[in-house]
């Protein structure tokens, strides 16, 4: 029996998870949907904060493993410490399974709706952390990889794409802003989770260990509560719904004239051009993130505390860029926004060695803050880009397929950066110039992305489904509306309930920003 079939049975008898049960009724306020998406993304975004556990886990036993220990023996060895490299493998497995699960189950998500997908994501992510906790407690590396990498990665992929289709249908007038709000949460997850994990480890640390497995269990419980709450708060817009008084503007920007089926979308040149666009943007950005701390220490002889502040500042711009650039794309179009990313990014990457050699740390930091804002903005803008090209009926599933570019970039970017910088060091290049070639190569990646973006054109008519085919697909998805309903438009639609929903997610974000700014102060 396939995994898709297994997921399809989840909650079927109860009916609470059925898509038809969560079609919004007139009077529902669409501004309740983004907090639901944020609740899930803020939790799964902790995958980027897992590095806080690496050093404590490398010191839990106090004895290094023998150099000649076999791989299989190492996976279950209880008498020696793990290395950082072996722990990072768990993170890498998680990113690979993120892309794979998003691609495999994207079509299933479109059929069953965001609530059921959110529940599956909650179970996989929280259960994965719990299994990883058992692995840490028993000192079994294979269990850590299974929990954090495989189960957690499946939860990441399904959870990441769960709100995309829902949000673009609720906000046809602000697609970029809506998806930017949700995906901003994925970038902010580590900003909240990492300092929380440090506090928990300090609380649980004792003579028996560093308190990591206890921290994993607490996080699993907290995340389960938040993610399930977000999942059950989801509502989907009735088919054909649009905001009262809003009409599709006449524009020369890319704009789908209908809906493209998932099976057809990934066979078009446009899909693969956007795949290259995402691959190049993410490879360059994630490559920088992988060496941000050592790069500042080697170029400017900065102390570790200052380098940590640099990483924290990059995280803030990564998060802010997801909302800022995605909102800008609603005004200038997605293709133009990505053109800005690539042109400005090429200039900044190529100019960064000059800033480094001039001794201007402030200018160097400013360059990379802008670069990381566009890295985050690229993630947030891509769902709206897909909706512009392929329509909204299968946009979540298409987005899932596209995320294989992210998995590829997660390997390509760090490998390129580490290989080129290590080769430069081996050839006697001074530390202050060791990243020059790396930055130029990253600029070349953006040139490739720019060319791919410029080649993207609107789809021809024959790619789109017939209206009768679309109607048949929507027949089992609940009520249909031919006109707009009173679902709340703009900020004027806020109510005490909406304010409470936003407070649930904004309070943790504000705490995370405060903790990060406290760390950023070390830069100055």
Tell me what you see in this structure.
With 524 residues, the chain is an all-alpha fold. It has two domains: 25-61 and 75-242 and 489-518, Up-down Bundle (Growth Hormone, Chain: A), CATH 1.20.1250.20; 253-459, Growth Hormone, Chain: A (Up-down Bundle). Helices cover 70% and strands 0% of the residues. The radius of gyration is 23 Å and the shape is globular. Residues 1-14 and 482-492 have low confidence and may be disordered.
How is this fold's topology laid out?
Blueprint: H1 3-9, H2 33-44, H3 54-57, H4 71-76, H5 84-112, H6 114-138, H7 141-161, H8 164-170, H9 175-204, H10 212-233, H11 262-265, H12 269-300, H13 304-332, H14 334-357, H15 361-390, H16 395-402, H17 404-426, H18 436-454, H19 467-474, H20 496-520
Helix count, DSSP H or I runs of 4 or more residues: 20
Helix content: 55-70%
Low-pLDDT runs of 5+ residues are: 1-14, 482-492
Query: What number is the mean pLDDT?
Result: 86
Sheet of most strands:
none
Please give the domain count. Answer: 2
State the CATH superfamily name of the largest domain. Answer: MFS general substrate transporter like domains
- Identify the overall geometry: globular
N-to-C SSE string, H for helix and E for strand: HHHHHHHHHHHHHHHHHHHH
Kindly report the CATH topology of the largest domain. Answer: Growth Hormone, Chain: A
Which radius of gyration do the C-alpha atoms yield? Answer: 23 Å
Distance between the terminal alpha carbons, to the nearest Å? 58 Å
